[in-house]
Every structure is written in C-alpha cells, then in structure tokens.
Amino acid sequence: MIIQIDDFKQSGAEVFANLTERELRNSYEKQGGIFIAESPKVIERALDAGYEPISFLMEEKHITGDAAKIIQRCPEIPVYTATSQLLQTLTGFKLTRGVFCAFKRKNSPFFEEICKNAHRIAVLENIADSTNLGAIFRSAAALGIDAVLLTPECADPLNRRCLRVSMGNVFMVNWARIGSSPDDWPKKGMKALNDLGFKTLSMALRNNSVNIDDPILYNEDKLAILLGTEGEGLLSETISLSNYVAKIPMKEGVDSLNVAAAGAIIFWELRKR
Asked: Which among 93, 99, 134, 257 could disulfide-bond with 58, CB atoms 3.0 to 4.6 Å apart, if both were Cys?
C-alpha cells in the first residue's frame, strides 16, 4: 500500500516526524513501545528476528529499488513516500539510506533464560554512547559471543543509530537487561552471574590485573566479560566483586582503548574455539 505524502498527518506516518528516542519508546505503550530501523539490511534482519512492522518511510526511488523485496514481504504494511528533499525537510535529518521502518518492540527475555546454555557473554555497564554500543554488538555477533547483558542504565540497543552502526547485528545476538533499576547492579547482578555458573572478568587498568591471553581465562567454561562506560570505565564495586581483572597490553604511553575496540579484542582472544 503506497501512500504519497507531503506531511506526517496520516495515521502511521507520524512516528517518523522528529520523535525522540524516548518518545518512540513510550509510544504504543501497550505493545512496549516502538523503534525505527534504517536501511534495507537492518530492516530485513529485524523482520527475520520476528519484529512486527508498523509502517515504512522511503524515497520514491527505493520502492522499486533497494526496498522492493522488503515491500513484497510486508504487502499489508503502509509505505509512505516522497522525494528525498521533502523527506529530509519533514524528518529533520538527512536520509543516508533512504529507507525506514517503524517496528513494535517485543518483550525482552529474562537474562537467566538467554544465559542458560551460554559460555561467553558480554556485560555492558552503563555504556551511554549508541555508536559504541552498536559497534560492540557487531563485534559480539561476529566473534561468537553467546549473549549480551546490559545494566539498567546502559543505552538502548534499539536506538536508531545503534542499529545502523551494528548493521542490524543487534538482532543476531541474544540480549537482555540484567536488572530493571540501578539498585539491581552491581551487587545483585554480579551474584546472579555467579549463581548461573559464570566467572566474571572485569576489563580494567589495575595493577593486580592479568593479561587477556592468560590461559586461566580461556580455560574457564563460562565467562562473563564486563566492559564499562566511556571515560570512567567499570565501577570500583564491580571490579572488586569480579573473579578476575584483566587488561589489554599496550604500547608505553597509551593508557586505554575505546570501549568498542577493547571489546572486539577481548572477544577475539577469549572466544570458544
């Protein structure tokens, strides 16, 4: 169903009209909110993961071009379209990929469920930058991380920028929140990980740390790799509750790596072969 628009007054199209990420999450409250996926690849991965589309927004040229297969998969879903210039004016941002889809969110699984048969998981503590979060998910999917857990104050993996940076790999990795309020982390969350049989590994620049290629880490059957927020890193309490603390050896004079880069290195080094 193709609908030509010159504004966002049509029901179903308004979700694309400069709504903030918070407003999107609070929309369709009974269904748990919505999110916007950008680009055919990301949209296809969301569809493959079972997310329900609400409506599409795209440049006219994509209807018979890059988005043709997606439209065929969703024949009953409205497709709002206009010229590139008009869409940029209406949305307030440049359409780098030219194809958007609004999806209903799904209920998140319990972290215990997705960790049941996992051996390598990543725990992301209070990571605020959506670009870093997307890059970590992309590395986690590529390097065999079984699940990603996010502390209550971590950024939203279904943020539009996070989805774009991850190339849709957010939908390729099991993920869940570990706790629902700040009080649930770190003490309760760390205990829960230990109860599930995981040894916890904090990535931190501490004198008592081991190198990431230490055999003791690789030989752990169930290992939770903890990565902290940009700048400040992991909470001191988190580190003190960990079974291990490790650091990435670096050239003298360089004290740290971006959290997404550090994640990729540690995921590769400690993957289950």
From this structure: 99
